[in-house]
Amino acid sequence: xxxxxxxxxxxxxxxxxxxxxxxxxxxxxxxxxxxxxxxxxxxxxxxxxxxxxxxxxxxxxxxxxxxxxxxxxxxxxxxxxxxxxxxxxxxxxxxxxxxxxxxxxxxxxxxxxxxxxxxxxxxxxxxxxxxxxxxxxxxxxxxxxxxxxxxxxxxxxxxxxxxxxxxxxxxxxxxxxxxxxxxxxxxxxxxxxxxxxxxxxxxxxxxxxxxxxxxxxxxxxxxxxxxxxxxxxxxxxxxxxxxxxxxxxxxxxxxxxxxxxxxxxxxxxxxxxxxxxxxxxxxxxxxxxxxxxxxxxxxxxxxxxxxxxxxxxxxxxxxxxxxxxxxxxxxxxxxxxxxxxx
Length: 342
Known about the structure:
Strand content: 25-35%
Number of domains: 2
Structural class: alpha/beta
CATH superfamily of the largest domain: RNA 3'-terminal phosphate cyclase domain
CATH architecture of the largest domain: Alpha-beta prism
CATH topology of the largest domain: UDP-n-acetylglucosamine1-carboxyvinyl-transferase, Chain
Strand order of the largest sheet: 5-6-8-7-11
CATH class of the largest domain: Alpha Beta
Order of helices and strands: EHEHEEEHEHEEEHEEEEHHEHEE
Number of helices: 8
């Protein structure tokens, strides 16, 4: 049984999600202690419990200590992951995309195709927005020959939740991701939406993002009503794509924060990544590392900043897999290389 200190690095939920996914992928028993020790409210929150229980269901894992705010638990897989139908209800506005972060790597190793429905928050703070998940992470995985179809039945926001999304996954081993050449031009697009609020709010987010980017971008704006969204909320996601890379940025609407502030923040973040010459944005690099580690070849990407989340993942993954990470500074950028073998 591998013992993992959940206080390593930022000591957040990413270690929980990634550790149980790796345990299920490799069949390695796990004990994780000091769960989310550095957070204001440490231990397992609703979305972490939902993620761990869902992964446990896929591999018939025996678990001890799984309860709200638990500071330690064990996770012992007893079978290869199964495909089929799975429904996960976070029960709060906890992020559906964070639950899917734990599930998706495991579903790629399942014995058959999978269909997963998750209910909770689709666009909440401190988690990838649904549009970022689809338009950035899933696009990147598509370049790695990962076959995933995503759909959304209803948006959900803090504090009500109630959103519903669906993922259909074909099992398979990802191919490598090699993004080394500097980009010469980018195609910039995006989505800004509000739910049960005036369209002008989404338009103001869009206009502020374009101003921050210093160029026009094809950012779709829309209002969601009725069955399309539970409660009020909104978000903006912008992304830049070309053969050489894929960059994204997003912000979630917050009460008391002006639409212009949110749009400008997303636009400024994307503009900084474009100007740096990076091939992936920092958040995408955080999320894609586990897929690079299970890919069938060596990968190479460049980022403007190697985040603490990425460094925690590079510390955790080799404890389960024969993957080696190397970070090399190249001017203002950092190159991350992933190789396999003992």
